[in-house]
What does this fold into?
Amino acid sequence: MYSVLTAALRPAPTSASFGVPQGASVWHRRHPQALLDALAPYQDAAPHVYRLAHRLLPRLPRRLLASQNLRTACPAPFSSVLPLNLAASCPWIAIDSIEARNALLFDLDHDDGAELIAALPEAIRPWLIIDPFSGRSHAILFLHTPVITTASGSTRAMAFADHAHRMMAEWLCATPLPQRSLVKNPLGRADTLLGTQVRRSPHPTSLVTWDAWEASESELLWHTIPGADAVELRDVVATLADEASQSGTVAFRPCRYASRHPEPSATGRNCNLFDQVRFWAYEHAEQDGGAILAEAQRVNACMSNPLPASEVAATANSISGFMAQRYKPRHGLGSTRGRDRVGGQGLSASERKSAAGINSAAMRRSATDSKIAGAVAAMRLGRESITQVALAAHSGVSLRTVKGRWRDIRVDRE
It folds into this structure.
């Protein structure tokens, strides 16, 4: 039985007890009881929670997708379509309905969201719902006029919404989320959470937000910075286009976050460790097997129930193999795009070709060294006997190469 179902036991309010808030949808104004039922639990809440409920709930559909364990350690996270009064306190909800986009949604994998939003005019500021522990957040830009997405909707309006979505995502250095995505609920209560949240670190990483959230002694799960009640898409496009023209660039703000990755998997400890370490390796273009193993050990130590050392080593070895052999970064320090462009200036075609060959050979040698170093570290961790044949099999490097570098490999022979 859902813990949020206890809200159904509260006395049902009537339209005479308090009026329907301004900004409510046409359906809520015509059928106010569903909205009043959802607002009733917040009548006696803290003032800031009460004000938040009166601004948020009238803009939500009467039935919406919600989840109580989306990003938790539960083995099988699930979501359900619930009435508004039951979904109102769930930690994650979908703002949109099946037929329409009620808002533009964004995933911010950094903690500069409040600063970026504060630089926008108040009329087009999204709501920012922050995880006080990590500083990561979701942004919600409520639309004054929902965009119909069924066959009867305007394809031009849908394309215009997508354009505004991309422009705002560029400004926020965020990932635009598709329609009906589950996002953090500003009214999500801590006591409705099922399971333990999956954390990227053992301690809070956004200390200012964490201290403010703790000082408020809030019963809510997230820290919310409300934005504009409703926004017209044309205002978003016009404002951000003006910003772009004034700066003389196509990009609205320089994005400091080169890569965007989803949340680590919550289906199991192995999957979670694999995701966290590989995302770290992608962002740093890391090909050093020893560094990847060290990061895997650090992440594993942060888990409430760490994995055995052998599984950690196997996971790190798998990521090291991919990074050394198959990973092709599109940008960053490890990218080969334009690698010889600067060094080749002023050289003839044959000289550039020779220099490129020398650089490529050096990169191959470095990649081979990383494979061998990673394999040595993993074998030591697993207390395996390090022989030339075993090292070649473990690292994926030929036996001839291992023999040629055997003198340089520091092997503990005790």
About this structure: The chain has a mean pLDDT of 79.
